Amino acid sequence: MTATPPHSALFEPLTLGKIALRNRLVMAPMTRNRATVDGLATPLMAEYYAQRAQAGLIVTEGVQPSQVGQGFLNTPGLHTDEQTASWRQVTDAVHAAGGRIVVQLMHSGRIGHPSLYPSAHRSVAPSPLAAGGQCFTPQGMTDYEVPHELTVEEIAATVEDFADASRRAVDAGFDGVELHAGNGFLLHQFLSDNTNHRTDGYGGDLAGRIRLTVEVAEAAAEAIGADRVGLRVSPANPYNDIVESDTDELYGALLRALPPLAFLHVMEAQCRPVTRTVREAWQGALVLNPHRDAQAGAVTPEVAAEVLEEGLADAVALGALFLANPDLPARIRAGGPYNALDEGTFYGGDHRGYTDYPTLA
């Protein structure tokens, strides 16, 4: 009799829209800061993603759909022909290794600083409200600046930027896109009532605050097909100075208004009841990035399997474990061992610092 592999539920195939996954382990998006100053993908990025192609699906780091959408140093873009072409080395390498990869389109909104990029652009947001806290710049820790309030015309242009980046993603060989509407970035800033003080059709009540996210999802779906588009949300997550006063009502309204996307990706805050509410409200496939316990460290394979067994999600997104263990699915099948995460390398660190795993290119 053949032994059942550990956590066998994680290794069942799954289809998200048009994207066929060989297992239910998703590599979560993690900022790496390894692009060129012009936002081009690099050979190091191709190596990094190809090494992790055993994942059922890879979601890339946040990729800006426009120049003004950039919020961090050396992050990649997908809004020029050169950037589009540069991603081919990444998607080709992942596909050659048998993997699937979607690009996360992330507009940073008010999170950023002019000193971080050659364009030196002023950040934008739904309202002229600076984020609390500071960002790391070449001059050291610096307060976030008051952003420019987007006009209605600029909002329309932003929607088209997401649609254009989605088309470019297909041209670059990606299997689909994930739209980032969480973590306090632009779409989340429109959703949340502490960052959106608008009095026009993109603010005020729930219908106004969800409008931009819905329009972006609809535009991306029209551009490349809804079955290639996912959406990431982070209900009740206070990251980047977000305060939601109406989380349940907000996400209930949003999920009812969305087109039938390939998947919904939930980054869980410390609120499992909220996750269960979202699961009940969303009729499609759901990917869950479970909450990371500060005491326990990275989310374990046991936690990932429990999420599936409970029916809370159809696939599980893991970040730190994939960073430290590029061949994570193989290690889970074997019952370990697992590399411990070096916290010093989590943001932008050299993934080649780990020496006890094979190169999977």
Mean pLDDT: 92
Enumerate the strands of the largest sheet in spatial order, edge to edge or round the barrel. Answer: 3-4-5-10-11-12-13-14
Shape: globular
Structural class: alpha/beta
Report what the structure shows:
By secondary structure, this protein is of the alpha/beta class. The protein has helices at residues 43-51, 81-86, 88-96, 152-171, 186-191, 206-224, 247-257, 272-281, 301-310, 320-324, 328-334; strands at 14-16, 19-21, 25-27, 57-63, 101-105, 124-125, 134-137, 140-143, 148-149, 176-180, 229-233, 263-267, 286-289, 315-318. Helix 1 (43-51) packs parallel to helix 3 (88-96) and helix 6 (206-224) runs parallel beside helix 7 (247-257). The longest helix has 20 residues, at 152-171. It is globular, with a radius of gyration of 19 Å. The two termini are 33 Å apart. Mean pLDDT is 92; it is low at 346-361.
Topology overview:
Elements: E1 14-16, E2 19-21, E3 25-27, H1 43-51, E4 57-63, H2 81-86, H3 88-96, E5 101-105, E6 124-125, E7 134-137, E8 140-143, E9 148-149, H4 152-171, E10 176-180, H5 186-191, H6 206-224, E11 229-233, H7 247-257, E12 263-267, H8 272-281, E13 286-289, H9 301-310, E14 315-318, H10 320-324, H11 328-334
Parallel strand pairs: 3-4, 3-14, 4-5, 5-10, 6-9, 10-11, 11-12, 12-13, 13-14
Antiparallel strand pairs: 1-2, 7-8
Keywords:
361 residues, alpha/beta, 8-stranded parallel barrel, two-stranded antiparallel ribbon, 11 helices, 14 strands, 31% helix, disordered C terminus
Structure summary:
This protein is α/β, with parallel strands linked by helices. The chain has helices at residues 43-51, 81-86, 88-96, 152-171, 186-191, 206-224, 247-257, 272-281, 301-310, 320-324, 328-334; strands at 14-16, 19-21, 25-27, 57-63, 101-105, 124-125, 134-137, 140-143, 148-149, 176-180, 229-233, 263-267, 286-289, 315-318. Helix 7 (247-257) links the parallel strand 11 (229-233) and strand 12.
